[in-house]
Design goal:
644 residues, alpha+beta, Serine Threonine Protein Phosphatase 5, Tetratricopeptide repeat, five-stranded mixed sheet, two-stranded antiparallel ribbon, 26 helices
Length: 644
């Protein structure tokens, strides 16, 4: 046997032992059907599935079939059965073993060149990697499965279901990346296919996932409606696992709605059913949500108990998201108990896991914990100084030395003033650091990086090597400039304009290079002498792109102008010929999933911090452009930034 991980080896050993036991008591009807299938050796997935799907939940029968088909070199049947065993292992939380069986199934499917069996194995590999939070690998497998399935001319019901699984799984990955529009789009496409084949299980899953997207964007009422619809389908097909999943997420919505008693009731009632399932993935989620509910009720003992139970299960099966969530709530409990050092340790563990899963860098809460922990140490130091001062005062009173007493009091006041001064400096530094971190996250968020690389990948796929290299170089230069800018507070205006030109070049790929972007600078302006906050223009260009031009038909223009019409001021204007703010707002209101944009607000705060010591203040305003018929013809934003 190959060098397998421990869990995989144990699962396979269990199957081998089960086979020995099974061979002594094999049902004669099952053996006859297996031998009949072996004699016929069908080569279509539909025919094999019709004969074997009733045995897919019996590990003993599956192992017998795998051995029988291997001995008789029936690779079509062996691939089908290996996939079924992989699913069984996944549903019993044996993820390493599941990967081993699905990879073997994929190899057999490739050997007989059966696309349908390959699609099935690729999808199942993606599901396992998604279950263990390896989202990049999962996405690669699902995209490969989808691409292969779409090359099949005669699409059977099974192929359609596989395409639906790929779309659904990719939607789940987009949920993890917080790309909710893309996720809902995939779920709706998957749902349409499931409706066409009458697959109620698929409909239940997609309704649940759309509910999750609504929940993530704050639409709790809409989420609850979709979760209940998913529960209705699960009741129709009598899926105990489906009921457990739905009741858990309904309970989570109740917690967010502050209906803690109802949440505890529905989750507690579901626990017993979840314990009876071999798949422990959802059991850990129930424990975590139950702990969260008790945390909100300030019952810290019960909260800690259930969170630790969920954490133990999550660690056993390497469920990174559940582990990170458990640490997050345990950190809050420690914080409420004023155990800031412990809270910081939990929060760091949660942060590291979330970073590993999503590659997002968010230090805000960790910084808060550090500040609170340092503040607690300062308070202890002050208390110590106060006690020492009291002892000195007693000594001074005994010696009746007014001069020494006055000196000690003055020293104490000086220490207090110094500590207060240091705290004020720390708060200011924290505010500036938070603004800079938020700015960097807004430029370097995984959505932008993912979409940019995906766009460049299209050139590679299309064998447009020059374009791919050209834009890859630009993307690398842009990332380097963003990282360089994050280390300084201000940059020359010339560098900022060069960075914006790179940014527009990358974003223009996703618009099929339809956007004409021009930069106009007055001749009397020295771009190297004028300093502005780094990356301050990007949110306005992003607004022009995605709100002004994304829905526009025809020619698309953006013009960035720099002028010095006023003394001691520089004026920067960004003009687009888009659909206008009113039309853009209407489109945004009609969207199911609404984004919360913080780019403009963050820029306003950064500019305010930049000019706090300047003689003049900054300002910016929007102008709604009209044509000769008074119809919207675009938007212009004008920034007035003081020079000294």
């Amino acid at each position: 046997m190959c060098n397998l991980p421990k869990n995989a080896a144990l699962c396979i050993l269990a199957f081998l032992l089960a086979t020995v036991s099974f061979s002594q008591s094999t049902d004669s009807t099952f053996v006859k059907e297996a031998n009949a299938l072996l004699e016929a050796k069908p080569t279509t997935y539909f025919t094999i599935d019709e004969q074997l799907k009733k045995y897919k939940k019996d590990s003993l029968q599956l192992q017998y079939l795998a051995k029988l088909f291997k001995e008789n070199d029936y690779q079509y049947g062996e691939s089908y059965v290996l996939n079924a065993i992989g699913i069984y292992c996944r549903n019993t939380s044996q993820y390493d073993a599941s990967l081993e069986y699905h990879n073997r199934a994929l190899l057999k499917a490739k050997q007989v060149n059966d696309k349908e069996l390959q699609v099935k194995a690729l999808n199942m590999l993606g599901v396992v990697f998604r279950r263990t939070d390896d989202i990049r690998t999962a996405l690669d497998y699902h995209q490969e499965a989808l691409a292969l399935a779409e090359t099949i001319d005669e699409r059977t019901e099974s192929v359609k279901k596989s395409i639906a699984v790929s779309l659904n799984s990719m939607g789940n990955i987009y949920l993890v990346l917080e790309q909710y529009d893309l996720a809902v789009e995939r779920f709706k496409k998957s749902m349409k296919i499931e409706e066409s084949v009458g697959n109620k299980l698929g409909l239940a899953i997609n309704y649940h996932n759309i509910g999750y997207a609504k929940e993530a964007t704050g639409d709790l009422k809409g989420a609850l409606i979709d979760y209940l619809e998913s529960l209705r389908y699960n009741d129709e097909i009598d899926s105990e696992l489906g009921r457990v999943i739905c009741n858990n997420t309904i309970g989570r919505v109740y917690i967010k709605q502050k209906r803690y008693k109802e949440a505890i009731d529905i989750i507690s009632a579901t626990l017993q059913s979840a314990k009876g399932l071999r798949d422990k993935f959802h059991l850990s989620g129930l424990y975590v949500n139950l702990g969260w509910a008790y945390l909100e009720l300030k019952n810290y003992n019960l909260a800690e108990k259930y969170l630790n139970e969920g954490l133990e299960i999550s660690k056993e099966y390497n469920l990174k998201s559940a582990i990170a969530e458990s640490y997050e709530y345990l950190s809050r409990i420690a914080e409420n108990k004023k155990q800031y050092k412990k809270a910081l340790a939990y929060q760091k563990q949660s942060y590291e896991l979330n970073t590993e899963i999503t590659n997002e860098k968010n230090f805000k809460y960790v910084n808060d914990m550090i500040v609170k922990y340092d503040k607690d140490k300062y308070n202890l130091q002050i208390e110590s100084l106060e006690k020492e001062n009291e002892n000195v005062k007693l000594t001074l009173r005994r010696n009746k030395s007014i001069w020494i007493t006055s000196s000690i009091v003055l020293a104490f006041l000086a220490i207090m003033i110094y500590i207060l001064y240091r705290q004020r400096l720390l708060n200011n530094e924290k505010k500036i650091l938070t603004l800079e971190q938020d700015m960097l996250r807004s430029q370097m968020n995984p959505h932008f990086v993912f979409n940019s690389l995906n766009s460049i990948k299209q050139y590679i796929i299309a064998n447009e090597q020059k374009n791919a290299v050209h834009y890859l170089n630009k993307f690398a230069k842009l990332i380097r400039k963003i990282l360089d800018a994050s280390r300084v507070k201000v940059v020359p205006l010339g560098d900022e304009l060069e960075t914006m030109d790179l940014y527009m070049s990358i974003e223009n790929i996703r618009f099929s290079n339809e956007i004409n972007f021009d930069i106009m600078v007055d001749d009397n302006i020295d771009l190297d002498q004028i300093k502005i906050p780094s990356l301050v223009l990007q949110p306005f260009l992003e607004n022009a792109l995605w709100h002004g031009l994304s829905s526009k038909k025809g020619q698309k223009n953006i013009k960035l102008s720099v002028a010095s019409a006023e003394k001691d001021f520089i004026t920067i204007s960004i003009e687009d010929n888009g659909i206008g703010r009113d039309a853009a707002q209407k489109i945004a209101n009609d969207k199911i999933v609404k984004r919360k944009s913080i780019g403009i607000a963050l820029t306003k705060n950064r500019l305010a911090n930049f000019v706090k010591d300047f003689k003049n203040k900054f300002s910016f305003y929007f102008v709604d452009l009209k044509d000769e018929n008074e119809k919207p013809s675009g938007t212009e934003v004008v920034l007035r930034i003081p020079l000294r």
